[in-house]
Write a structure and sequence with these properties.
With 436 residues, the chain is α+β, with helices and mostly antiparallel strands. It is 42% helix and 14% strand. It has helices at residues 3-9, 13-17, 39-42, 46-60, 82-89, 97-111, 181-184, 186-205, 222-233, 260-279, 299-328, 331-334, 351-363, 369-375, 399-402, 407-420; strands spanning 64-69, 75-77, 113-120, 126-132, 138-141, 147-153, 156-161, 165-169, 211-214, 252-255, 337-341.
């Protein structure tokens, strides 16, 4: 894309690569001279930490499978494919799939990009995906228009072509890299950091007393001041609750109340939680912050969770699936093969929703009983490989044979009406199903 739009929005090449536009110096976590928010400092906010942790854990825990399309609609799982082993079992020699994918999602949240180096075997297949540092990555184009990735690895500068990189992008306006939420929200996130720093300084350096003792016109000597402190020490703490403390003549206790500035600081910190959640696309209630009048339980929270899965996580999963398909599969296999997250795993802890889903799929001829049992890690049972529908749960291929003229359904309905006789328990006269 034209970089004029990126520059107009404030995302210059220097900012996106982590370099200072004035002197070209490289700052891995942002330029400390301007006091801006950086990924490292933003993670010091409990809200940002909770948002990044939640999304990375949820997405990282979802298994990835390979599916092959055969015919117009049919498809089958390909656990024998080499990419299934890489994504589902072991992406590299040191990490599990959950660890690798969680790290990539965390990088997407903080830097807008996730990078992994591809180890390519003799057959041109990717044999390992090793994470690369997003904070030191610089993406540019060579003279042929191909992307080139430069980064620092243990103090040494490395450059790799795009064929050796799996690049996951976050929000993008068509450029070579995804946009960083920390970089875009630098101003508001810096405000949250300032409020957090101010609150910390108040606790660390502020006057932490419950009140003052007014002595009237008398001036206390150093000894009297020491005696007064000892008296108050004897009545502080939870063990002294409910005790009555006598005061000397002309002494009056004045409690210290919270001033408006401190009250406003507490209110702004509560607002900052919601502000940070906006930048990281996470409903505040999912990280333990309920708005005024909002409960932590009930159908309302359930709908918020479903909405988060639908409008936030699902587009993210689709973008990762498409990146894997485009960058890891050879062109000849892209038309028939695709990587896909198991989204049903997000409902694994909701037994009621899972049972309702299985019931609906089984009664409408979508899934067999043994397919359901396999998802619950249960052994297959004889006769469980046929599709059934709700009409007496008969096999699909027997629908027309079981009752060619509908007589079976009519007989069942007549029998039910006869035995009930409109609810009074008396059979109809002349009814062939009468028990009389």
């Amino acid at each position: 894309m034209a970089w004029g739009l990126m520059d107009w929005l404030g995302f210059s090449r220097a900012k996106l690569s982590g370099r200072d536009g004035k002197d070209g110096r490289y700052w891995p976590n942002g330029d400390p001279r301007v006091g801006q928010a950086t990924p490292a400092s933003v993670l010091g906010l409990s809200t940002a930490w909770a948002c990044v942790r939640l999304k990375s854990r949820v997405v990282g825990s979802l298994p990835i499978s390979m599916f092959e399309k055969s015919g117009s609609t049919a498809r089958r799982e390909r656990q024998d494919h080499w990419l299934y082993t890489l994504l589902h079992d072991s992406p590299n020699a040191e990490q599990s799939p959950c660890e690798w994918l969680s790290g990539q999602i965390g990088n997407l949240d903080l830097w807008g990009n996730g990078y992994s180096e591809r180890a390519i075997g003799a057959l041109g297949r990717t044999t390992a995906l090793t994470p690369l540092p997003s904070d030191s990555m610089h993406v540019r184009r060579d003279r042929q228009g191909s992307r080139v990735y430069s980064f620092n690895d243990r103090g040494k500068s490395e450059t790799l072509p795009e064929e050796k990189i799996l690049h996951l992008r976050g929000l993008t306006l068509g450029g070579d890299v995804g946009l960083s939420a920390v970089q875009a929200g630098c101003r508001s996130l810096s405000g949250s950091l300032s409020a957090d720093r101010t609150a910390t300084n108040i606790v660390a350096r502020g006057l932490q007393v419950a009140g003052f003792m007014e002595t009237g016109q008398s001036k206390l000597s150093p000894e009297q001041r020491g005696d007064l402190v000892d008296i108050f020490d004897a009545f502080t703490g939870s063990d002294s609750a409910g005790k009555i403390m006598p005061l000397e003549k002309d002494f009056k206790f004045a409690p210290l109340r919270m001033n408006p500035q401190e009250a406003q600081l507490l209110e702004s910190r509560s607002f900052n939680i919601e502000e940070v959640c906006r930048w990281f696309d996470t409903p505040p209630i999912l990280i333990g912050h309920a708005a005024n009048g909002q409960t932590m339980w009930g159908s309302g929270v359930e709908q918020l969770f479903i909405a988060w899965l639908t409008i936030n996580l699902n587009p993210l999963l689709v973008s990762i699936e498409q990146a894997i398909r485009k960058q890891l599969l050879p062109p000849a296999e892209r038309a028939s093969l695709k990587a896909e997250f198991n989204r049903e795993a997000m409902l694994a802890t909701d037994s009621a929703a899972r049972a309702q889903l299985y019931s609906s799929l089984g009664q409408n001829g979508v899934m067999t009983r043994n397919e359901m049992r396999a998802k619950e890690n249960l052994p297959a049972q004889p006769g469980g490989d046929v599709l059934t529908v709700q009409s007496n749960l008969i096999p699909l291929d027997q629908l027309g044979k079981a009752s060619p003229d509908g007589q079976q359904a009519r007989d069942a309905l007549l029998k039910w009406l006869a035995l009930g006789n409109a609810g009074n328990g008396q059979p109809f006269p002349g009814d062939p199903y009468s028990r009389a």
